[in-house]
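Please, structure for the following, as tokens.
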Amino acid sequence: QVQLVESGGGLVQAGGSLRLSCAASGRSFSSYAMGWFRQAPGKEREVVAAIGGIGINTYYANSVKGRFTISRDDAENTLYLQMNSLKPEDTAAYYCAAAAGISRLRVGSVDYWGQGTQVTVSS
């Protein structure tokens, strides 16, 4: 069992930055692939970024490439998402997720979800 708790969301102006954190508790954090998803009102939840176990492999949605960076600290059981050059269209609830492999970081196959943290980008 893995529990995930996100923090770091908030209100920021366009062009600004935020850093999201996801604290994990439970067993074998380092063995899970981890990801960040987001869901805007009226839209489907989508994967934003993902990182494999040990942090070798990463994936970014085209909409955030070059602006967001995903990282993990397995010693601290923490996942991060550094978000720079934020845009109003980045406004959404952001969710941390864990899965058995990076290929399983899809909405229908995630093993564990966090409760979400709200990011609002004003224009």
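The two ends are 40 Å apart (CA to CA). The longest strand covers residues 18-26.
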